[in-house]
Amino acid sequence: MSRRRTARRATVLALGASLGLMAACAAPRATGGLATGGSPGHSEAVRRALPTSVRVHVLAQGKLARTASGVCLLGDAGARRSFVLTNEHVVERGELPAAPSFAVVVEEPRGGSRELPARVVAQGSVPNEDLALLEVDGVALPAARLAEADSPEVGDDVVVVGAPFGRNLTVSSGLVSSLDWGGEGRGRQQVSLKTDAPIGYGTSGGGIFRVGDGRLLGVIEGYRTARVEFPVQRETYGFDVPMPGETFAAPAAKIRRFLFVHGLTAILEGRDPAKVATSR
């Protein structure tokens, strides 16, 4: 092997090692689906959050076209029906070749999963209301407890549950890094929440849970990235790295407004909105 080829190979290997190290730093650290380390408080928050979290599959012409995450807000044991919150950009048709259909993947505690058909019952609009609600028949999932409006605080310890790259649910941890407010006077409310918890593609719609009480603080909408490039000989290698503290989410206040606008506040009271409508 020539010296030039040897030098080039060494450079590529060094680059690969650098990419692997940076990817490892940016990716959620998990063992068997659970983040390593953490206090007993984190462990309890994870035990509460995992059963309420699901994977969301978007299908076009019978083929898997998009994956995301979701969190259950209500599971009605009597009607065997659940309502799962995710993002509007997850359920929109966008560039799909045909109108999409949806499925929710429920993971079993010790391996295996069930895929259940779902349908959209409420849908916001990007960018102001990037939320959607799915109805899933045939199962009563454990439901997350939504935090009170404006209760998240900067510095709150959180765990995040999502399905990066469409794989099994994974947990990462961090804190609330910033809050954005909108409105005037007493009408001011939280409109966006950010966290530094590591996430990956496919985590959109995943829940952010407060460690202290396990309540749902928000639902991930997306994250900002920085482009990192490395010149190697005559080629350039690059990738996008999630920026720490720049994962943004719809906070509890926005989720509550979304449900109110769509006439679904009964969900927050643990009541099936269909039953409430029938009883009127």
Q: What structural keywords apply?
A:
280 residues; alpha+beta; Thrombin, subunit H; 2 domains; six-stranded antiparallel barrel; 5 helices; 14 strands; 20% helix; globular
Descriptive account of the structure:
This protein has 280 residues and is an alpha+beta fold. The chain has 2 domains: 28-49 and 145-257, Beta Barrel (Thrombin, subunit H), CATH 2.40.10.10; 53-144 and 262-279, Beta Barrel (Thrombin, subunit H). Helices cover 20% and strands 43% of the residues. It has helices at 3-26, 40-49, 88-91, 252-261, 273-279, and strands at 30-31, 34-35, 53-60, 63-76, 81-86, 101-107, 113-123, 132-137, 157-162, 170-182, 189-195, 207-210, 216-232, 235-251. The strands form 3 sheets. It has a 6-stranded antiparallel beta barrel with strand order 3-4-5-8-7-6. It has a 6-stranded antiparallel beta barrel with strand order 9-10-11-14-13-12. The longest helix is centred in the first third of the chain and has 24 residues, at 3-26. The chain is globular, with a radius of gyration of 20 Å. Residues 1-38 have low confidence and may be disordered.
